[in-house]
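_Full entry_
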Amino acid sequence: MVASRRFAFQREHSNVKKKSKDLVFQNEIGCMMHSFGDSAYPLKASVALIERIIRDQMNMLLKKATQLNLKQRGNNLTHGHLLLLLQKNENKFRRLMYYLKMRDASELIRKKKYDDLP
C-alpha cells in the first residue's frame, strides 16, 4: 500500500518536472507579452500556449529545411536553406535579414572593443 502511494507520488512529480522542462522560455515570453501591452503578469496558460505555438512553427520550418537539404543531397543544414524557405514571405525574410545584420554588427563592435584594450 505504501509502495503504491510512493509510486503514484513519484509519477505525479515526474510529470510536473517534465512539463516544466517543456516550457523553457516562460519568463522571456511573459516579458515580451508585457511589452506588447499585456498585463505585467500574464496567465501561465497563455504563455505556455504561445511557447508551444512558436515551438511547433520552428519545428515545421526546420522539417521543411531538412527536406530541402535532402532534395539537394546535402550533408548539413545551413542558414541558406532557411533563407530559401523564407524568400516567399517578404516580411519574414526582411526581418530575418535585419536580425542577421544586427547580430553581425554587434559581433564586430564586441571584437573592436576587446581589441582596443591594452
User: Anything to note?
Assistant: Residues 44-71 form the longest helix (28 residues).
